[in-house]
């Protein structure tokens, strides 16, 4: 009897451009897909509530698509170091394939598993699939990681171009006996008491087919407006692909390739260039995490360890979380986030600046809130962008650059469409802090940090 191959799915919940799945399919042996919900291994960060909602539905879609092609998806829960070898023994698998991860804890888990399984005579191979450029391939002339985006992205564009995306397997050989699987519903990923996910259900349809459709819609209908209107939260000019990339329902290679194809006529060249640079920013975040695994907990700039964050005022944090600060654009963004699990990128910068600089609340509290409420929060981009906003991260905006949320609204929401949709009552509220006074307090704190160095 032929020995099956296991394909360990992680943040790559798709069939198209999936190198690990392609390698298994090319063996002409039975293929068993497996997803492990590992919330117990050291250093692995538990998913937030919005992420768990998305994961449930994306796994259901992946399971159905694998079944349609003749294979199966096995769900198991526990430490990967225990569960995966046990499943190999249970199925008699002769090979295990996965696409690489880049977080510090995940890399340790994968390296140990690869060594242990190979010692037992199992073929193990890993592949690059979730980044356009592997983190060890892009370095400065001195051999160090880049700390500024513009030279980083230029270096990326100077190395060999990203590979072409791989086609999805049309058929897969399934095992003669299907291994036992946890029931997805038993994992409790969906909120029930209360069920707060109504807005997420209205906004999103997780899964690879919907992701492919959204990419096509964006390239056909919205790419031309991207460069001009991407900063306007009411314009609807953004791609809405961030959760698709976070969960790997689309690969960056697919997005890259199809964007270049769509811009091939030259009509949308400027917008395509701008959009692909946003993929570059995503790459920069992941490369930074690869070289600095403590990105979610430690200041990338060590000087910020001396920043004098004042004692937390819980009422200010709650007002920010609930969109009740009395600052219209901030409140609109936070209410959009709570309702839909998403926030426009321009508004993310405004809300993050307000928390860290006007309220003087440590960026880690904001990062944790976004981790719990965003459907697209991942281990690199979420802390990377929060550190950028706070001034403590790579290529960060200077600390003294403090977004004025009123001016941001005047510039990017001049007709009040965005605020009117999400926080029509906000202007009636008294702001919880004075913007000018709180800006001065932030600059004073920054000066104190510099003196403490």
From TrEMBL:
FAD binds at residues 226, 238-242, 275, 376-378. Keywords: Chromophore, FAD, Flavoprotein, Lyase. This is Deoxyribodipyrimidine photo-lyase type I. Binds 1 FAD per subunit. Its cofactor is FAD. One of its GO terms (biological process) is response to stress. It comes from Microbacterium telephonicum. Residues 3-132 form the Photolyase/cryptochrome alpha/beta domain. The record marks 309, 363, 386 as: Electron transfer via tryptophanyl radical. Pfam families: DNA_photolyase, FAD_binding_7. The keyword Transmembrane helix does not apply. It comes from the Bacteria. Belongs to the DNA photolyase family. One of its GO terms (molecular function) is deoxyribodipyrimidine photo-lyase activity. PANTHER family: CRYPTOCHROME (PTHR11455), CRYPTOCHROME CIRCADIAN CLOCK 5 ISOFORM X1 (PTHR11455:SF9).
């Amino acid at each position: 009897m032929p020995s099956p191959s296991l394909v360990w799915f992680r943040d790559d919940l798709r069939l198209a451009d999936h190198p690990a799945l392609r390698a298994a399919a090319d063996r002409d042996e039975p293929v068993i897909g497996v997803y492990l919900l590992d919330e117990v291994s050291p250093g692995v960060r538990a998913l937030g509530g919005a992420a768990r909602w998305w994961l449930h539905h994306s796994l259901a879609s992946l399971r159905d698509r694998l079944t349609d092609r003749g294979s199966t998806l096995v769900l198991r829960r526990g430490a990967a170091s225990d569960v995966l070898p046990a499943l190999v023994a249970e199925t008699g698998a002769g090979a295990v394939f996965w696409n690489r991860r880049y977080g510090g804890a995940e890399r340790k888990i994968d390296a140990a598993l690869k060594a242990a399984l190979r010692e037992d005579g199992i073929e193990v191979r890993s592949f690059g699939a979730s980044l356009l450029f592997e983190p060890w391939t892009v370095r400065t002339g001195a051999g160090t990681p880049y700390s500024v985006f513009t030279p980083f992205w230029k270096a990326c564009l100077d190395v060999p171009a990203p590979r072409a995306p791989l086609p999805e397997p049309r058929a897969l050989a399934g095992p003669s006996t299907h291994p036992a699987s946890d029931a997805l519903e038993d994992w409790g990923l969906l909120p029930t008491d209360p069920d707060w996910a109504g807005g997420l259900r209205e906004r999103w349809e997780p899964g690879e087919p919907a992701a492919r459709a959204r990419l096509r819609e964006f390239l056909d209908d919205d790419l031309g407006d991207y460069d001009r209107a991407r900063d306007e939260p009411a314009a609807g000019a953004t791609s809405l692909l961030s959760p698709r990339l976070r969960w790997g329902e689309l690969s960056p290679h697919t997005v890259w390739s199809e964007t270049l194809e769509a811009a091939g006529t030259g009509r949308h060249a400027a917008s395509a260039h701008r959009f692909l640079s946003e993929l570059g920013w995503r790459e920069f975040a992941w490369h930074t995490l690869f070289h600095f695994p403590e990105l979610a907990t430690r200041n990338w700039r060590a000087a910020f360890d001396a920043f004098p964050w004042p004692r937390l005022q819980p009422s200010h944090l709650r007002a920010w979380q609930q969109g009740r600060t009395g600052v219209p654009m901030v409140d609109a963004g936070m209410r959009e986030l709570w309702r839909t699990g998403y926030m426009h990128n321009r508004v993310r910068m405004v809300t993050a600046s307000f928390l860290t600089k006007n309220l003087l609340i440590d960026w880690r509290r904001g990062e944790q809130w976004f981790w719990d409420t965003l459907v697209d929060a991942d281990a690199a981009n979420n802390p990377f962008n929060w550190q950028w906003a706070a001034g403590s991260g790579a290529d960060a905006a200077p600390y003294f650059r403090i977004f004025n949320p009123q001016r941001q609204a005047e510039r990017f929401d001049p007709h009040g469409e965005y605020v009117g949709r999400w926080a029509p009552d906000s202007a009636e509220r008294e702001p919880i802090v004075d913007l000018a006074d709180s800006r001065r307090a932030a600059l004073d704190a920054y000066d104190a940090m510099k003196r403490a160095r």
